[in-house]
Amino acid sequence: MLAPSARVGCRSAIAPASAHARSAQTFKAFYATIRSLRQTYEPPEPDDVEPSEKDFILSLLRANPSLRDTKSYLASFGPRPQPPKSPALRPEETPVSTEKEVAADAETKPPDIKLAPSPVVASILNPVHRRTALIKLQAPFTDRQLESIARGMVYLEKLGLVSVIVVENDQLPRGDSGERAAMLEETMRVVNALEKQGARARPVLGAVVRLGPKPEDETSTEPRDYTIPEAHTFPSDLVHIRSALRAGEIPVLAPLALDSFCRSVRVDANDVIAALVRGMAEVAALDNSPALGEDSPSLSPDEVDLTPLRLMIITREGGVPSYARQGMPHLLVNLTSEYQYIRETFDPRWKPAHPTALSNLELARTCLAFMPPTSSAVMVSHRSPSHLIGNLITNKPAFSSSLPHALLQGNRKLTPHTPTLLRRGLPIRVVRTVQELDKRKLRTLLEKSFRRELEEDAFWQRMERDLDFVIIAGDYAGAAIVTREPCPPGTPSAIGPITYLDKFAVLPKHQGDGTVDFLWVALHDETYGLGLPFSANPNGGKEGKGEGRDLVWRSRADNPVNKWYFERSTGHVRQGDWVLFWCDAEVRLKTEEGRRANAGLSYLEDWERGRLATWTDVVMKIPSSWKPKTKQIANAA
């Protein structure tokens, strides 16, 4: 057995040796990259390709995109619009070529190119748009995990989304003498994993960002709701990334930055990603500007659009834990209205399993501030490459956040690895008087959403008399109008007055961007979810204080939205041309279930007797808010 001094001496001798060996390996990998001496990728036999292709197709099918999702995807990635065809010449106007002109054309045009290519050839020569996504790979990952992640990146590339990957490794201590070599080695692992899946990847082993905020950030007085990135970049710094994208390669970067002495140092990957998102968005704006300056980069018809369309944070942790789901992940986050509250309600007991959840949440908020309004960020586990495809095609969470908790957790749809979708979102507020409403904007919202003309005098008289509250999303991008409908004398207090959802409207341009779910969750917190701990959202409403009420509403039997209502309601009953929906107060249900333990609830509880008849009698007598269609046509004429 060695003495302590001898063991210390051995360690000190081994450490430099291991660091030297690691540096040598990194140098060899770098040299092989430059000289294209990496092991060549041998395509597998057709039998081996089939499962991967099947996985890709199944992932597309599981995404189950709606017609709106498909149109949105094609708008971003579909073929470029063709220029209008010139009108066909009449026979008498058709020019007749002389023999000399025909001979000259034959000399100037290769014989294998036809004047009028077939539609198939035209579609091949006119590929889909290629867009970019910033990917944070939060290592360490095993080889098997990297294989799964790389497969997801290849799937995204097939669909037109090219990844710009930044690699991080939380287990590499900062300041260690061999940290740079270890990070470069980790970067090469990712490159090799991508190439084994058939992708073309390029390691960018130098720094492409600079330490410190931009000079104008320090003097700007503009109000911000995000953290200024601790790094920045200029258009000339993105040359290596643009070169890789033009060549059809996936750039893979180490988290390095240039300091004030032009030294390349390791920094937090979040700073690199935030700087890249901002820099790429600024360069894309220059590329798309109508008048380019002399110093602006040249544009090509096949140039990859550098505007980041997605931010994907791939970790071993999965999504952000939710106080409303007992530590299970949030499904959809409205960063504008929920960011601060999520931080305040983050349970310290979640920290060991989700050490970077809050820092990644902050990264998403910063990046989305520079990305287009339709962009989103997703925090996803390495176990879920198929969720990346679903997010790209539908831009929606894996499951709707407005679905009942019991439906998600009872069927075990929600797991610790369910991804969290984050959007910049809209502010949500609750108003309780008609005087606080902007009548013009609310009327515009209702008429555009329902495509009907409002009977204003009767509608506003009814609102003055029966309004309970209105939930407003943004600048009237969406609204939920709730009234308190009086019941006949002698009606039990458990039934009346009725909390009635009079209108639920979202502007067409905001349908599909999460506003519907944001509104419904706020509606849940103010009505049938009131009194539960997770209903205490700071949206200007009751903040979870009070007694939950049954929510009732009606919808036309042929309304295509009814499928969405069926999934969120406790029950429904058909009444001729109408369907009556309701959601039971959740606190009352939980109280009764706890009181009866294993006995459970009966099909008809005492408080439910007579309520359906009362609801039907009152709700079906509520007058329509719209002008008759014949009257609308007469006014238009």
Automatic annotation (TrEMBL):
Main enzyme class: transferase
EC nos: 2.3.1.1
This protein's pathway: Amino-acid biosynthesis; L-arginine biosynthesis; N(2)-acetyl-L-ornithine from L-glutamate: step 1/4
Reactions the enzyme catalyzes: L-glutamate + acetyl-CoA = N-acetyl-L-glutamate + CoA + H(+)
Keyword match rRNA-binding: no
Basic and acidic residues compositional bias, start-end: 90-111
Keyword Zinc: no
Domain N-acetyltransferase: 426-606
One cellular component (GO) term of this entry: mitochondrial matrix
Intracellular or extracellular location(s): Mitochondrion
Region (Disordered) location: 74-111
Entry-linked PROSITE patterns: GNAT_NAGS (PS51731)
GO MF assignments: L-glutamate N-acetyltransferase activity
Pfam families: NAT
UniProt KW keywords: Acyltransferase, Amino-acid biosynthesis, Mitochondrion, Transferase, Transit peptide
InterPro entries: AceGlu_kinase-like_sf, Acyl_CoA_acyltransferase, Vertebrate-like_GNAT_dom
GO biological process assignments: L-arginine biosynthetic process; ornithine biosynthetic process
Family the entry assigns: Belongs to the acetyltransferase family.
Task performed by this protein: N-acetylglutamate synthase involved in arginine biosynthesis.
The name this protein goes by in its record: Amino-acid acetyltransferase, mitochondrial
Highest classification ranks of the organism: Eukaryota, Fungi, Dikarya, Basidiomycota, Agaricomycotina
